[in-house]
Design brief:
Strand 5 (58-63) and strand 6 (66-71) form a beta hairpin. It is built from ten helices and nine strands. It is elongated and about 75 Å long. Strands 1-2-9-4-7 form a five-stranded antiparallel sheet. By secondary structure, it is an alpha+beta fold. It has two domains: 6-173, Jelly Rolls; 178-280, Homeodomain-like (Arc Repressor Mutant, subunit A), CATH 1.10.10.60. Helix 4 runs parallel beside helix 7 (225-243) and helix 7 (225-243) crosses helix 8.
């Protein structure tokens, strides 16, 4: 779908009682002239956060002492005012076409900082990734006049930033990106969760010291091997609680716990429910499954 070219600005009255995200401008533009040149220290419209994504062509972004050529599929993050510069290089072979989103940092800054810390200032994103699709939709809605009040504008900024952070989390936690020995460790836990004795056993299986296993596993998976093992055991316990009439002691044994009391303690810590409450509903909802992060 063709995106309408143009810049759309928003200056809604602030809601003092509601901490809303504040959209400043959004748009799609194509430039092929050398006067497209923004110096972050000379701008007076800040404080602002800028996310700019290249659809085609190439632009230049200078920041943190480095010069980056931002080609198709790449974005840059800029904090305004700030020590950066982005511009069109007149020696480029084609015009630079990009999407951009400008918004105030208050309320949404922690999301921005997390994404920048993990993805860097020049991240690469697929054109069909959720954040880029979201940005296209915001531009389209702006062009159609559908961003008509501060609540809609706030929702646009919040959804975009949460999609951006989520995309980075999913990418970093993707099993295909894990080192081979960490994938083997996870597979061992998923297969032999009922018979695992200790993390030392797991470390020996994948040829790492216990310290290096925990550090690398946590970095790749987002949790320690011990927490991953507990999560797998509790998920298997849920299946047995809702799919069989087995008693707590029997289920504990089947998922690798030494006693029913230990299963109850761990189950409550991870789900907020006892196994009995999960199975029968009690005064809570009757869950088929609880999803754990």
């Amino acid at each position: 779908m063709e995106i309408a070219r143009g810049t759309y600005g928003f200056r809604f009255t602030e809601h003092e009682e509601l901490p809303l995200c504040r959209l400043f401008a959004v748009g799609c533009d194509t430039v092929d002239r050398s006067d497209y040149d923004w110096d972050g220290l000379r701008r007076t419209d800040g404080p602002l956060l800028l996310f700019q994504y290249t659809l085609s062509g190439e632009g230049v972004y200078e920041a943190e002492g480095r010069k980056h050529r931002i080609s198709a599929g790449q974005a840059f993050l800029a904090e305004i005012p700030g020590p950066h510069r982005y511009y069109y290089d007149s020696s480029a072979e084609a015009p630079w076409t990009f999407l951009f989103l400008l918004f105030r940092p208050d309320t949404i800054l922690p999301y921005w900082q997390k994404y920048r810390r993990e993805a860097g200032i020049v991240p690469r994103l697929s054109s069909d990734s959720a954040p880029v699709r979201m940005l296209r939709m915001i531009v389209t809605d702006a062009a159609a006049g559908r961003i008509s009040d501060p609540l809609i504008a706030s929702s646009c900024v919040y959804q975009f930033m949460t999609e951006l952070v989520r995309a980075q989390v999913v990418n970093s936690r993707s099993r295909s990106n894990w080192p081979e020995n960490i994938r083997h460790a996870a597979e061992f836990i998923e297969r032999d969760y009922a018979d695992m004795v200790s993390i030392d056993q797991l470390a020996e299986h994948v040829g790492l010291s216990k310290y290096h296993l925990i550090r690398r596993f946590s970095s790749s998976v987002g949790m320690t091997p011990g927490v991953y093992l507990a999560r797998i055991r509790i998920e298997k316990a849920m299946e047995l609680l809702r799919g069989t009439e087995l008693g707590i002691e029997n289920i504990a044994q089947r998922v690798g716990y030494s006693s029913g009391s230990y299963l109850i303690k761990t189950f409550r810590r991870m789900t907020g429910l006892t196994p009995g409450e999960f199975r029968h509903g009690s005064e809570s909802l009757l869950y088929r499954k609880l999803f754990l992060d």
